[in-house]
Design brief:
Helix content is 40%, strand content 17%. By secondary structure, the protein is an alpha+beta fold. A hairpin with a 2-residue loop joins β12 and β13. α6 crosses α8. This is Winged helix DNA-binding domain-containing protein.
Amino acid sequence: MQLTRRTLNRTALHRQLLLRRSDLSPLEAISRLVAVQGQEVNAPYLGLWSRLSGFALDDLSDLLYGGQVVRGSLLRATQHLTAAEDYVWVRPLLQARFSRSSQSAFAAVTKGVDRDELATLARRHLTGRTLTRPQLRGLLAERWPTADSMALGWLAQALLPVVHIPPNGIWGRGGATPFTLAEEWIGRPLEAEPAPERLVERYLAGFGPAGVKDVQMWSGLTRLREVVERMPLRRYTDEDGRVLYDLPDAELVDGDTPAPVRLLPSFDNLVLAYDDRTRLMADEHRRQVCVGSVTNPVILVDGFVAGMWWLTKAGLRIQPFGPLPDEVMAEAERLLEFAGQKGAAIEIGSQIRP
């Protein structure tokens, strides 16, 4: 069965809670999304606001302080927020990726550093306590004074499952990054050998139908083709003939289903979930949205990217890719109110509206 681009678009929006704001709790929504990109501190709040009815800033802050949600390096070795009960199996699946990438990144500046010894020493320093990265790297530099201390800190973070604890991850809070051992903060050990099929299944539930390259792009894992092909999944093709996989009983959404305007934050889950992003945006728009390591905030109109936006101290700035409907302005005003900037100016291109 061939799926049209609009069917893939509407199905993705449905599974991402973007066809209508959901009544799910924030914890349920984060679990639905597997992990929420948290490279920028405020982005998860804006992403959940776009997906949930009645969402307030304290809803997520309380989960972080309570430990039900944790913030740490996960998918693609970047910062994510995930349910604590998911972190304990997702992070072990990704550990080999962390180890490989850290070896290639830091080998030249950590010559003579035994990685196993570093991990053991870092664990000893973190056991029963919380340290900032500068504090940890200072302690490690006592053992390896000639190595690059910055690299020692990053290497320890790659080799050990650690989470950043509040106030890190709280709306509007920056500064030092405190972290501690994940199993101590969560209160349970990480799973020893989780199955990759589990991650594929959760991905498809939140983002499918999708191809193998899509799963790999989203997760940062490689060599998943054999894993995917041995699973009892339903197969489709897209308009370009690519094979797509989905859960056998997962719902597809008609391409003519109305899609509301949405303002998605930097590095949003939906934008980073696919190798082939044509179900979401035209290639010429992708080149403007995804620039190097940056993924800009986007405006969805009729389900597709129609512009970019940025929240500033003065208000909200919009860069359209073409004409925008009035609903974009209404949604922008709602976002400003959520962010505590009700009534702030909205700039569209060179035009500013109070």
